[in-house]
Amino acid sequence: MSDELIQVRTAIPGYAGFGDVAARRLTDQQVRAWVGEQLALVRERIPLGAAADDFEDAIMHCQFGDQHVIKALESDAFAEPDRAAAVEAEDGSLLTAASGADAVTSESVARFVAGVRVALAQRTTAILGFASKR
């Protein structure tokens, strides 16, 4: 088991993985929900200031699944272990970017939100890219 998968399974008990279509859909929801919870912790503690618009974009990404991603996750391309492992690595990177929400300050909020948005975009790109390489 990779370090990223250990990290994800530690943070998200019941992480469904990529074994079948239902698991992949659930995994997408679980990861987005966890990241959204971390973002919400930041919003509860500190003013967002200039990062407010970027924050809202990130939280919307977490609240609502991208239909292109959901469709891609239905592809049997993710039955290949190397592709599933690559997306699990992206999940790990996303969780790393969203970790430490309790330490975010007014001075670091913009950097934190930017890091989460980049990780969300990279995960989306990886999923869409792998699905198109059937």
- Cα(first) to Cα(last) distance is 25 Å
Q: Please outline the major beta sheet.
A: none
Order of helices and strands: HHHHHH
Beta-strand percentage range = under 5%
Average of the residue pLDDT scores: 91
The number of distinct β-strands equals 0
Overall structural class, as computed from helix and strand content, comes to mainly alpha
Offer a quick outline of the entry.
The protein is mainly alpha-helical and 134 residues long. The chain is 71% helix and 0% strand.
Notes on the protein architecture:
The chain has one domain (3-132). It is mainly alpha-helical and 134 residues long. The protein is globular. The chain is built from 6 helices and no strands. The two termini are 25 Å apart.
List the main descriptive attributes of the protein structure presented here.
mainly alpha, 0% strand
Question: Topology, pairings included?
Answer:
Blueprint: H1 3-11, H2 21-45, H3 52-63, H4 67-73, H5 81-98, H6 109-132
